[in-house]
Amino acid sequence: MKNIRNFCIIAHIDHGKSTLADRLLEATNTLSSREMENQVLDSMDLEKEKGITIKSHAIQMVYDYKGGNGGPEAGRYTLNLLDTPGHVDFSYEVSRAIASCEGALLVVDATQGIQAQTISNLYLAVDHNLEIIPVLNKIDVESAMVDVVKDQVIELLGCKEDDILLASAKTGQGVPEILDAIVERIPSPVGDTQAPLQALIFDSVFNPFRGIIAYFKVKNGSIKSGDKVKFFNTGKEYVADEVGVLQMKLVPRKEISTGDVGYIISGIKSAVEVKVGDTITHTDAPCDEAIAGFEEVKPMLFAGMYPIESDEYEDLRASLEKFQLNDASLVFEPESSLALGFGFRCGFLGLLHMEIVQERLFREFDMDCITTVPNVSYKVYTTQGECLDVHNPSGLPEITLIDHIDEPYIRAQIISKSDFFGPIMKLCLDKRGTLVSQHFLSSDRVELNYDMPLAEIVFDFYDKLKSISKGYASFDYHVIDFRKSDLVKLDILLNGEQVDALSSLIFRGHAYDFGRRMCEKLKELIPRQQFDIAIQAAIGAKIIARETVKAVRKDVTAKCYGGDITRKRKLLEKQKKGKRRMRQVGNVEVPQSAFMAVLKLD
Fold this sequence. Notes:
Blueprint: E1 4-10, H1 17-27, H2 45-50, E2 57-65, E3 75-83, H3 91-99, E4 103-109, H4 116-127, E5 131-137, H5 146-157, E6 165-166, H6 175-185, E7 198-207, E8 211-220, E9 222-224, E10 228-231, E11 237-239, E12 242-246, E13 250-253, E14 255-257, E15 261-265, E16 279-282, E17 301-307, H7 313-326, E18 331-337, E19 341-348, H8 351-365, E20 369-371, E21 378-382, E22 387-390, E23 402-417, H9 421-430, E24 434-442, E25 445-453, H10 454-457, H11 461-468, E26 474-485, E27 487-494, E28 497-498, E29 504-507, H12 508-525, E30 533-539, E31 542-549, H13 565-585, H14 592-597
Parallel strand pairs: 1-3, 1-4, 4-5, 5-6
Antiparallel strand pairs: 2-3, 7-8, 7-16, 8-15, 9-14, 10-11, 10-16, 12-13, 12-15, 17-19, 17-20, 18-19, 21-22, 21-23, 23-25, 23-26, 24-25, 27-28, 27-29, 27-30, 30-31
């Protein structure tokens, strides 16, 4: 066990984590040159297309450490690496990777310095008492500010200058020093090999041929293939058909012992039986208590997902259950809508997460879904003194029964160049933010802390922040509390019929502007029919905006050359009656693009 090292790589988005992981795999000869490719651990096509890591990936390497200078003894060391995502929407993946490790490489881009996600991931790692190894990446780039960024790291970590490693993940410079530092500085896992088996499940995937494969880290005891095991929280019992370690492929082993990371295949078919954060133990000699898993995931954003064909409802449920194995941060529950039929109310960690889930459902499970306008969760206090959690505007009680509504507030931390100080402050104030603190990290970098409503940042805040700061500003947030707010329910009516999937809860001061823009957008997107379609935005019984999609009409008077005007009038009146009758029986189809366009109103 003393020759095992478990570590993860944490950093802000685009600071070079996946490229550094590639170099570590090359340096330890884990992959042959034929198998090697860029961002080899990003196994999804979607990750390579977008250039981001979505899943944290576990892989085992073997490193020959030569020893010396009073460090650990020379020999072969097993290094278990977890490469993690950098985007704020996938922070749950990072928290699970950190819970499975004893140390972390904190990668900082020498051209950009410390950014918001660097700090928040670092706090996660410090809370779990991980040994932090700071690495300055991209030192070969001309614009690298090595000394300035070194000072930032020293101020943040309180470490010595000699502790900071300099590397270039692109050229491979400094990689041997990083491998030596992993062996020397990161402690080996602690645990008792003779104690009853305790293993923490940190991830799982669905394999159509072999059932569910669960990835775990052994805290105490050991597990052999053929053992009878049970999952502590669900109480279900299985036989371990195969156990092994995670390299690029699954490599079977006879036994996985304390401190190591591996996988188990036991022919589990039902997705509900495997919970990430559960503990595996032996049936005949179980452990006394489960390992404290990860904190429950708190979704930030809720949206309805509906199958395009109503008879695909059960297929969508099965797809979401299988998807949840691979992405434990997705939560869902059944709901129904008048406009869209039966579907699910899903909780996401942010807009990017929602987009990725939709895309992966389509690619991996061939499920095409309609997604409604996303909204956050509110606390509604009724006149009877009850408190209701409302995830969906259609679940709101009658307006006469509502005493007041509380909405979630976040503490946003923005780090930027001081040139963009003014525009960023204006953006935050427009989004109902209040400044908590500001301080200059260096002469040209400023950190701003704002309290603002979560509902204001879920749509387009991140995109706007990136565009006004030319991509330099970084952003991180956490929910702090619920605060009383003046919110109204904005309904969209088509020909007097309410479309519940387009309803939203919105701040009263923004409602008129939002309602008008929404009507204008829907006028462009709803196809013309044989009758006029009235698009209205309403607050309660009060209409605040209206647009009309004009009817496609045939020129019925074309055959009248001259003659009395009453001939033309008679034909037009007859047409008008037909239109009125058609409007009573006709229904308006709302295309999927209309639901998505609401997100991109600006």
